[in-house]
Model the fold of this input.
Amino acid sequence: MELRGEEARQYLQQTVKAVLRHMGPEFWVVAIYPYYVSWVWASGKILPDSYDFVLGAVVIGPLLGGGALLFGDYNDRDEDLQNPRKLRLPFYNRPIMPKAFLYTSIVLFALSIILSSFLSLGFLTITSALVILSVLYSSWPVRLKTRGGLDLLANMLGFGVLCSFAGWIVVEPVSSYPWLWLLPMVFGTATLYLPTTIADAEIDAKLGVRTIAVKLGVDATRNLTILSLILANVAIIAMGLFDYLYTPGVALRLWPISVAEVLLLSYFLGSDETKGILKGIFSSAALMGFGTFLLMLNNVGIWNV
Done:
């Protein structure tokens, strides 16, 4: 049915608001934080002081992050309509233009590639890889998010490796990246991703979406989540003890945070409710972020141990 006048204006307004909401600004930090951490390692500064950093952050967060979320929601719309946790979002409870999500994601991906070309060939390569990974993750026939195990590896590669490389390459060539730092990055990413599959495991199983939690089972995925968190923290402590990026004294002061992370996540993952699992994700992310921020303060000479 053709819309005209005020009705058309309201329809367009609803669509624009839905697109902006589904770009997920609250999730951009998941990509921007590893980018920022690596930038601090490379630059030796805690506060951004260059347009290159800002431009890179815009590409990694709003453009790539927003584009990936819109592209994923467009491809997942049939499954998400049957997911009670998703139904409150505007894409599923308002009359809007579905293709607007697809077209906007394409525009955001294109802008990310164009703007990346102003930084460096290396950054452009990373951006292109993230766009390709986002498409493979959500669209048929590959659809990595529905292939248990590959969904986890895709997140570890995207957030843990490529976003980390992006922050470093703004300042230094990727060949000089502190490679052992990838261990806490990839295991930390796994720790935050795995519980999301637990939260949706029941509905995903009914819909035939074989995430890692559906493939391994909820209990095994809980154990894998805790193992990933332990490995991330062991890597952080071990690097300090071997005087890699920071000193043994710094590492020894971080162990209470590591213990708190494991205890809190273990407690919240024991819940069968989605809210409890989400609390575990947010509490772990907050503690992980705090511990990493202390390392960055040490790196720039603010927190001396």
About this structure: Residues 26 and 52 are 23 Å apart (CA to CA).
